[in-house]
Amino acid sequence: MDVTSSFRAPGQTALAVLAVAAGSFSLMMGVQASSLAWLWPATFLLVWAVAATPNARQSVELMITGPALHILPLLMLLSVLWSDVPMTTLRASVQYAATALIGVLAARLLSPRVFLVCLLPGLVLSTLLSLLFGRYVVDGLAGDMAFAGIFGSKNSFAFFLSLEATVALAVLIDRRQTLPFRVLAIAGLLLALPCLILARSAGALVTLLVASGTLLATLAIARAQAIDRAILGGGLMVVALPMVAIVGLLGISGTLGDVVRSLVEDVLNKDITLTGRTVLWEYAAPIVEREPLLGLGYYSFWQQGKPDAEALWRMFRIQARMGFHFHNTYIEAAVALGLVGALVLAIQVLRTLHQVIMVTWRYPEPGTAALVAIMVLLVCRSFLEVDMLHPFGIGTFLFFSIMAYSFDFAAGRYQDRMGSDRAALPADVPLP
Question: Which pTM was predicted?
Answer without folding.
Answer: 0.88
